[in-house]
Amino acid sequence: MGHLDHATFGWLTPALSYLMACMGAALGLRCTVRALGATGRSRRNWLLTAASAIGTGIWTMHFVAMLGFGVHGTDIRYDVPLTILSLLVAMLVVSAGVFAVGYGRERGRSLLIGGLTTGLGVASMHYLGMAAVRLHGDVTYDPVMVAVSVLIAVVAATAALWAALNIKSPLAVTVASLVMGVAVSSMHYTAMFAVDVRVTPSGEVLPGATAMQFIFPLAVGLGSYLFLTSAFVALSPTAGEREATAAAQRPVELAR
Questions:
Q1: By the 8 A CB rule, do 163 and 12 touch?
Q2: CA 254 to chain centre
Q3: Which of 58, 162, 192, 195 is deepest in the core (most CB within 10 A)?
Q4: Residue 33 counted as domain residue
């Protein structure tokens, strides 16, 4: 049996991955709130930004946490195409969930469909990411823990979308994103505890890239994207602010 280590760098990777999940959730919720106050192309663009933020946050959380994943007795490599595919899956399914909520006629039904879609998407992203792991040995999963992790993903996604629909104040968005971060992180670590590795030592070179060669630069890039998008969203005026500005300008124009 291979002894698994989920935090080879101590608390650094769990803490950093939690921060990424919170950041993605906060930005996603903020954009969804903005989308629901907008119409037409503007609504679509806000929803796309929300989906890309949540998808990026979840994926970055997973792989930053994976930087701390080690198995005694074997090196670990990552299959590059599969890892990229897991990122695309995260983006696509979160988009489907967010759009179901953004354009749904019936709140309750669209929330259930959106939550189920997004939750299953998050889970499939995780297990695709795990399928990209290459090591000397066999990886098996505890089916009960896998089922629990999928359930956590669906509940977390539904709760996040509910929050996006019902929460408006910045403080509430902050609290909701912290809770969402806990949910995404607990889904990840539940799924990781479902993993069992039977190591067969071998001198063969593993295919794929190391975490530092490939995942670390990608995570830094996506983290930067989240940070810059957050800054842009924070600085762009809300619909209410735009109306207030327009109203303030009207008397000036009338005076002329």
A1: no
A2: 49
A3: 58
A4: yes
Task: Write out pLDDT tens, residues 2-61.
Answer: 555 555 566 777 888 888 888 888 888 888 878 878 888 888 888 888 888 888 888 888
Cα dihedral 164/169/170/174 (nearest 10): -50
User: Do the domain assignments include residue 247?
Assistant: no
Question: 66-104 as b/e, with b when 16 or more CB fall inside 10 Å?
Answer: bbbbbbeebebbbbbebbebbbebbbebbbebbbbbbeb
- 230 SS3 class: helix
Name the token pair of 9.
């760098």
pTM of this prediction? 0.77
Tell whether 109 is covered by a domain. Answer: yes
Q: What is the dihedral of CA 20, 26, 29, 34, to 10 degrees?
A: -120
Contact 74, 140 (CB under 8 A): no
Enter the tokens of residue 200.
Answer: 């067969």
